[in-house]
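Let's practice the habit of predicting before peeking. Look at the sequence and jot down your guess about where helices and strands might fall. Then scroll down.
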Amino acid sequence: MDQLHIRSASMDDLDAMWTIFQAVIAPGDALPFDERFDRGTFRDHWFGAHAAWVAEQGGEVLGMYKLGANHAGRGAHIASATYAVAPAAQGRGIGRRLVEHSLQRACAAGFRGIQFNYVVSTNAAAVELYRRLGFEVVGTLPGAFRHERAGWVDAYVMFRSLQAPDAEAP
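Done guessing? Here is the structure:
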């Protein structure tokens, strides 16, 4: 079987990325986006100020992520990312590879930490993966997510430092 390759996304990947995104948001259980998030907004969101990456195997895009500063100015040293893996490819370690790749890219870009602003608490696979990779829940937003089947569920803010705690500020 072909190896998984993670590379920078290009506009040539837009169709595959849009298809994955639609499949991931359709169940209404993992990301805060809904069916009103149109293709143009998706394109601007994924190819705007953030760097976008895709996981490809055998010429097929199976997953993606975007990475960039969580905030501008005095918060620009903390990264944030969003990930999506095609439902048919989930459970094969692609999500883990994407997160690991994003951590390497964030470190190389000089970010001091990485924060996920909105991790749905019932998305157990994502929460567990992030915990295994060193993230901690640093905040809970009670009832912040309208889950398609479970109703109002919590969303987590998760964080991981990318530098030693005693590293000097610039």
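How did you do? The longest strand covers residues 136-147.
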